[in-house]
Amino acid sequence: MVAAEWADIRVNGSRLCSRLAAMAEHGATPAGGCNRQALTDEDRDGRNLFVQWCHDAGCEIRVDQIGNIFARRAGAKPGLAAVITGSHLDTQPSGGRYDGIYGVLAGLEVIETLNDANVETHHPLEVVVWTNEEGCRFDTAMMGSAVWSGAMTLEAAYALADRRGRTVKDELQRIGYLGDVPAIPVDVRAAFELHIEQGPVLEAEEKEIGIVTGVQHMSRHRIIIRGEEAHAGPTPMSRRKDPVMALSLFLPQLYQLAEEHGPEGRITFGFIHADPGSSNTVPGRLELTVDIRHPESDSYRAMLAGYEQRVRDACGRFGLPHELECFWEAPGVIFDRDCVQAVSQAVAGLGYTSREMVSGAGHDACNLAAVAPTSMIFVPCEGGLSHNEAESITPEQAAAGANVLLLAMLERAALAS
Ligand SMILES: [Zn+2]
Asked: How far, in Å, is the centroid of ligand 1 from the Cα of 4?
């Protein structure tokens, strides 16, 4: 339980909000959002600002080989594993001020709060900035945490290039964040990631905190269906080999499939392209992507099987050759029981309204969970909007999440007596 002697410590919400505003100036967009893509000049400036703040707070800074930044507040006993928290400072091209940034700066606020209160912990505390979480400039999301946790090799990450051919390694070097600390998980006692929900559930249910118990299973699939190009006028409907006819059959069936596994099932058709793309030609080729998600293994597997069956049946009915390919899959994550428990206790101690939930999006915490006891904390964001310049949270929401993070980290780091 929350020990009496530190149960009353609270973060400084106005300091946190002023730091969020200061960070948002780097890569600020006219519409009030941020364009601070990984390893750009703007990312460098944001990193430098963070490092300066951490220096001022008395932290020791390490930068690893993939540019992840670790700011450490020493513990009372040398040699103990750290309780870490963090997220990312990079944004989408038209991103907001809070996705990722909030989790990093709330971690710094935890350290400053403990400095102000003269509180010493047994285990050291660390705030981490993970490199290239967004994966928009360099096409691998959660890259820095993937390398650190062993899900991706350093060489593969270094070789990733943006559209202009600039590689991750060159850009790390250029902005001064190619560190020499090995990018491997050292002993971690517990890891927490505080993040905006990026969805509408907490706001709709008027809950202040989401206690995140895991991340849902997700995968992306490509469907290619081949037909025969034909003139839109003279060719009778019954004689066509039209891939869109198959699409018209399985599309409603797949929406139905999501509903059968509802309310958590998700199916999204984010890309649909017919060739040759001429208004008076029956398409000869159709390509589309399908994103499938569900928090429970059995339902997720059932959705995958159902998806494949329905697409094959529909194509078969029109005699159309087709290919199905899964090009990306992230298995679901169940977060560490003790970490989830620490968050629940913190929420109870603070008296916030809350609900348990599963994250619909991927986060650095997914990679961390493979190598360290990990969990996440969500706060609501206005309208559930994220990856959007209008992304917004209130000062009260910002402080509430940071207070939960503070008490959860203290619970795992233990007070030095
Ligand atoms: Zn994020």
From this structure: 33
The topology (CATH level 3) of 13-216+332-413 is Aminopeptidase (3.40.630)
Taking the centre of ligand 1 as the mean of its atom positions, its distance from the CA of residue 90, in whole angstroms, is 9
What DSSP line would sit under 349-417, residue for residue?
HHT--EEEEEESS--HHHHHTTTS-EEEEEE--GGG--SSTT----HHHHHHHHHHHHHHHHHHH-B--
Distance 363 CA to ligand 1 centre (A): 6
Cis peptide before 243 (omega within 30 of 0): no
65 CA → ligand 1 middle, Å: 21
**Pairing assessment for the beta strands 217-226 and 188-196 based on DSSP bridges:** unpaired
Q: How far apart are CA 68 and CA 184, in angstroms?
A: 11
DSSP alpha helix (H) spans, 196-320:
201-204, 243-260, 297-317
User: Please, are residues 376 and 193 in contact by the beta-carbon 8 Å criterion?
Assistant: yes
Query: Domain 217-330 is in which class?
Result: alpha beta
Query: What is residue 3's three-state secondary structure?
Result: coil
The domains of the chain are located at 13-216+332-413, 217-330
Helix (H, G, I), strand (E, B) or coil at 218: strand
Q: How far is the CA of 136 from the centre of ligand 1 (A)?
A: 12
Element (H, E) at 266: strand 266-275
86 sits in which H/E element:
strand 82-87
Q: Which of 250, 386, 408 is nearest to 316 (CA)?
A: 250
How many beta carbons lie within 10 A of that of residue 340, not counting itself?
22
User: Are the beta carbons of 401 and 351 closer than 8 angstroms?
Assistant: no
**pLDDT averaged per 10 residues, the chain (length 417):** 68 98 97 97 98 98 98 95 98 96 98 96 98 94 96 97 97 98 95 97 97 95 97 96 98 98 93 96 97 94 98 98 93 95 97 96 95 98 91 96 98 86
311 contacts: CB under 8 Å, gap ≥ 6: 223, 246, 250, 254, 322, 324
Structure tokens, 173: 């070097």
| Token duo for residue 213 | 């118990």
Distance CA 85, CA 311 (A): 43
Nearest by Cα to 379 from 352, 398, 358: 398
Q: CA Rg, the chain, in Å?
A: 24
C-alpha angle 265/267/271, rounded to 5°?
165
